[in-house]
Design brief:
By secondary structure, the chain is of the alpha/beta class. It has 24 helices and nine strands. It has helices at 3-24, 28-41, 56-94, 101-122, 131-174, 182-190, 194-213, 218-221, 226-238, 241-245, 247-255, 264-269, 274-291, 304-309, 316-339, 347-362, 392-407, 436-442, 459-469, 503-516, 523-534, 591-603, 606-614, 618-626; strands spanning 381-386, 413-418, 428-432, 447-451, 494-495, 538-540, 543-544, 560-572, 575-584. α2 (28-41) crosses α3 (56-94), α3 (56-94) packs across α4 (101-122) and α9 (226-238) crosses α13 (274-291). The two termini are 57 Å apart. 46% of the residues are buried.
Length: 629
């Protein structure tokens, strides 16, 4: 196998491992709660109590699998995917008499994937006003079907596979071969596959075994800090230079903090030391098996403190011996190689090893936003994202879409949405700098551009230069335009010649007009005021577009726009707005007016804009914002 193929395989394994651990790690608290309750109150626990012991059973039977299913579905398709994942998981739980952790890790992502594909297929075919009805019923119907499928078909398959796997593992344990697992586990940890192995394979097996026997060795096969601690001790005893000086801090972080990655560079600096951690791991597992040790629940992170906290009554001696034996053997083997080496004090060696560690850890992982760059030839999906996804982002998207259309780039999709709903296939995401952290979390796969203003920025210059610089071909095909739907803006909702008031009063007036028009419920007005406190809705050239925050989006009954003209202006910080355009949007109904607003801002001269700010004829404003290109 070529180096390229090996790296590709490792990248795929790391991505899969991150996905598996992404389902388990957010729910470690539930595992710990279940483990502590079990360790305390089961008949062999520290404080046996038949009444309180009943609390733990529903956690392993229902709570933890449902959390896993939700997390798996959410990783595929956000909250909606998580709900479908949990519904689908309930089917495998109902059809089993054992904790269905593996079933949850199958049905959760499957539920998220199915509803994502369904939503994609119908997104352009939902009649206006029926979005909530269709979204809720589609989730219920599809979830019910998946639950039945899981109960009748997938659950039995998982049970059968689980029985085969359990029989195989028990056979390995019976033959005394479990220590050989360290030959795979210890090198894999150094390659950053530790989470994939621990949370994707060993923890589910361990939880089922602990449910039956009150403890499991599987929780300690990867989490035991002994092998890594032994290598660090050897460097401290016999190393030189930076390698020796840095080990005390590394040992504290590793053993007490449970961050095993801290010792990986010391092994990468001298790869033969992987033999030391293998020997330490095998010795520890042998000791654990011999003395009958194990944990009641996963120890995460792999700190000795977490290990002791998850140790059931009667297993302290075995678990402590596991740690001490693994440390001693690993240290002894590592010392042989370190003492016979001539370059252990080379600071450059450790630095290079750390760089190699970072490179391996990041392989297959999404790069930070500022290191990403989508080529012009690949750029097909640009998304503007704001808190509510209806005002600022829609206007920015409309402005960029029009400019790209004018340049002939009609095959590039430019859309807008709320933070939290950014499509997973978004390649370039534009969002406000105050929303940077949320946008990165929502779409780590994309290149990100942060702006202070959705309309006055250099996004078009960046995209245009990239497309033209790489010679991307334009298209002669006509681009789709937003259609203006009747009733979104009515002449009655265009008010001119209003007297200046405070910013809050102007926003409140716009909101109350939306309520009066039947576009929104009353809570939406407060949502508009809250949105303004967070990020200003002033967009430049004397225009502000107040709209509700994401929390009150459910208050929108139908799309609507109101236009308020204040000839003397409304103060928005250091800026003055003459047009206050209140927005309530469902779906994309309001985009035609925002596209016209973008055109007005882009093409109108200061004199023409001044005329809009001072005209006494509401028809003038009405015609500007309702024209269709």
């Amino acid at each position: 196998m070529s180096n390229q193929n090996k790296e590709g395989a490792q990248e795929a394994m790391q991505k899969f491992g991150r996905f598996l651990s992404g389902m388990v790690l957010p729910n470690i608290g539930a595992f710990i709660a279940w483990g502590l309750l079990t360790a305390l109150f089961i008949p062999t626990g520290w404080c046996p109590n038949e009444y309180l012991a009943q609390v733990g059973a529903p956690m392993s039977k229902w709570l933890i699998p449902l959390l896993l299913g939700y997390s798996g579905g959410a990783a595929i398709y956000g909250h909606r995917g998580g709900v479908l994942g949990a519904i689908a998981t309930s089917g495998v739980i109902a059809g089993s008499d054992i904790p269905m952790f593996l079933g949850a890790m199958i049905m959760g992502p499957l539920g998220g994937w199915v509803i994502k594909k369904f939503d994609k297929a119908i997104e352009d075919h939902i009649p206006t006003g029926f979005e909530m009805l269709i979204n809720n019923f589609s989730a219920g119907i599809i979830g019910g079907i998946l639950a039945i499928l899981a109960f009748a078909a997938i659950g039995p398959v998982v049970l059968a596979a689980n029985a085969v796997l359990r029989a195989g593992v028990e056979g390995i344990v019976a033959m005394g071969l479990l220590p050989l697992a360290s030959i795979i586990i210890e090198p894999a940890k150094v390659l950053f596959l530790n989470n994939a192995i621990n949370h994707g394979v060993l923890s589910p097996l361990g939880i089922q075994q602990a449910e039956q026997y009150g403890k499991s060795m599987f929780f300690l096969l990867e989490a035991n800090p002994g092998p890594g601690f032994g290598v660090l001790l050897a460097y401290w005893f016999f190393g030189k230079g930076m390698a020796k000086e840095s080990t005390p801090g590394a040992m504290i972080i590793h053993v007490l903090g449970g961050i095993h990655e801290i010792y990986f560079p010391y092994i990468l600096m001298k790869p033969i030391l992987v033999l030391a951690v293998i020997a330490g791991g095998m010795s520890g597992v042998f000791t654990l098996n011999l003395l009958g040790g194990g944990l009641i629940a996963p120890a995460s992170p792999g700190s000795i403190l977490a290990v002791l906290a998850m140790t059931p009554k009667g297993a302290f001696l075995a678990n402590v011996a596991d740690f001490l034996v693994a440390t001693a053997v690993s240290c002894a083997v590592a010392s042989i190689f370190i003492k016979g080496s001539h370059d252990d004090g080379n600071d450059e060696s450790l630095a290079a090893a750390r760089e190699s560690m970072v490179e391996m850890k990041n392989r297959g992982k999404d790069l930070p936003a500022d290191e990403k760059k989508v080529s012009g030839a690949e750029l097909k999906r640009i998304v503007y994202a704001c808190d509510a996804g209806m005002g600022s982002s829609a206007l920015g998207a409309a402005a960029l879409r029009k400019k790209l259309k004018k340049d002939g780039y009609t095959d590039i999709s430019v859309t807008n949405c709320a933070i939290g709903n950014i499509p997973k296939d978004a390649q370039l995401v534009v969002s406000h700098e105050k929303l940077a952290e949320r946008a990165l979390e929502d779409s780590p796969q994309a290149e990100h551009i942060w702006v202070k203003d959705f309309t006055q920025n250099n996004v078009y210059a960046i995209v245009s230069a990239r497309l033209k610089g790489e010679g991307v071909q334009t298209s002669d095909a006509p681009a789709e335009t937003e259609e203006l739907k009747e009733g979104i803006l009515t002449k009655e909702n265009v008010k001119v010649g209003l007297k200046s008031v405070s910013k809050e009063e102007a926003i409140k007036t716009a909101g109350e007009l939306l309520v009066k028009g039947g576009y929104v419920d009353t809570p939406y007005v407060q949502g508009m005021l809250n949105r303004e406190k967070d990020i200003t809705t002033y967009i430049g050239k004397g225009i502000a577009i107040p709209h509700g925050e994401n929390a009150v989006k459910d208050s929108v009954k139908k799309s609507g726009i109101v236009v308020l003209q204040y000839p003397e202006g409304i103060q928005f910080g250091d800026d003055k707005a003459h047009l206050i355009i209140g927005i309530a949007g469902r779906g994309n109904d309001h985009l035609a007016i925002l596209a016209n607003l973008a055109t007005t801002m882009d093409e109108y001269s200061d004199e023409q804009l001044h005329e809009l700010y001072t005209t006494k004829d509401p028809d003038v404003l009405y015609k500007v914002f309702t024209k269709v290109d």
